[in-house]
Design a protein that fits this description.
alpha+beta
Length: 154
């Protein structure tokens, strides 16, 4: 078993099936040694989509869990695209969107759910640049959406 996947087993994490795109786009596009991932949603292995607005019907902690689930889904997409998670050189950047009430200011703390997960699983390779943006709505009324740029072995 490869190192990243062994770490996932240690943590008791099983990657879900890759979520098919819901429109006319690709989940990932590679150019050179960079893989650009489309926005991912908080669909856990249970198949029940997380929905709601952070600061109203979704707590900070639930938002962080949504971000963590998205990070797991991103790893599933990377596994599908690369075949081997050890081909990840580093997570370069995350862009997180948080569906939140007006005046909400803890978007970075919500997106930490993904950032912390990547560091927990990938170590230094998981440290990345990041943006965390609040918005008044997201598709399917999801609380968080995250896209990623990942450097991979050529």
């Amino acid at each position: 078993m490869v190192r990243v996947e062994a770490r996932l087993v240690e943590l008791g994490i099983e990657l879900p099936d890759v979520i098919a795109p819901k429109g006319n786009y690709a989940l990932s596009v590679q150019t050179g040694n960079l893989l650009f991932l489309a926005g991912h949603i908080p669909l856990p292995k249970s198949g029940v989509l997380m929905t709601g607005k952070v600061g109203a019907d979704v707590t900070l902690e639930q938002g962080q869990e949504a971000a963590r689930i998205i990070a797991i889904n991103i790893l599933a997409t990377l596994k599908g695209a690369l075949g081997d998670l050890d081909k990840i050189k580093r997570i370069v950047k995350l862009v997180g969107f948080v569906n939140c009430v007006d005046g909400y200011s803890q978007q970075p703390t919500v997106v930490n759910g993904a950032s912390d997960f990547f560091v927990q699983v990938l170590g230094e390779k998981g440290v990345h640049a990041r943006s965390a943006v609040g918005t008044n709505a997201l598709p399917l009324n999801i609380p968080v959406e995250i896209e990623a740029i990942v450097e991979v072995e050529e």
